[in-house]
Amino acid sequence: MSMHATPILYLNMGGEMLYILRQRLKAQKIDVDKTVQVLNDVTAALLNATVLSSVFKESLVTAVASLRPTLECAALSSIMRLDAGSMDKLFDLMTMIVKYQLTAVTGPREVILLTLNHTDAMRDMVSEPSGQECVALVHQMVVDFYSNLTYNEIWRARNDCLKELEPYSVRISILLRLGLQNEDTSFNLTTQKYNEKYEEHKHMLDNKKMKDIDPNENCSGSFQLYGDRGTLLGKNIYSSTYGISEKLASSLHNSNFLKDCGTKAELGMLTTQLGTEETYDRPFTLNLLPNEEETLYNKNEYFCENEQEKVTHNMGLLDLLDEIK
């Protein structure tokens, strides 16, 4: 059994939760200020230093059912309500997308890269500089925690995560539409640009630490804070640019480019043909509270323990980072 699996489960499931919440907020045309508040608050709750100290502790993998209350408390840490049915659907989406990603990875390095794709997205979602600094610290925690492990140890951690996720078997519309899942809930592992070919190199890599291998000798993908991860796994599958080249994605975000409605319409048809435009209805609704006084959870009580400090207090993360090193 691996002693290093829990951060993989927690950060990837938390990252997927943020993707889903952001997309629902956008789809429901929630006010920009409230959207920013929700994303800042939920990210802060996910990356609370006390919680991360438990997540990054070397121990047997934490059961998904045991992680769920912490993730749910994070989802409800802002001005947002989710009823039990909606929370179940949110959890199904988080769980199955991460299960697909960990099934599809081509090697241990990609396990870390897909996790860093999620932390990259967290950094992009938070608007406060202190929050971005905290995400940068978490990024370094991930790199330090896993770079010192061997390829075999990381792969065992991935396999333990999949064992935990094995009982969860739900059809997910976005996966079905992209051809990544079958009606029986099994996955189609399509060929991606990134491929470590781990099984082919296993005999040479298994006993070597991740940090001791030049990525160019095996497979690229940067662990640097602003590096190119190289893999699509861990990116926002709900985005209209998912699967589109970085160059085209950059053009889609260019304001002058978007002003050309004719071009935008043509790109819309193109993305539909490529199977990258989202067309299905999301299965649940978010309800935002009208003001902070009505928040279900006090901002100093993000989780079930009252003694938690806010994540914007960076000292806790810095201390934790020192422990991991």
TrEMBL record:
Pfam families to which the protein is assigned, alphabetical: Oscp1 (PF10188)
A single GO cellular-component term on record: cytoplasm
Signal peptide annotation: none
Protein name per its UniProtKB record: Protein OSCP1
Organism: Odynerus spinipes
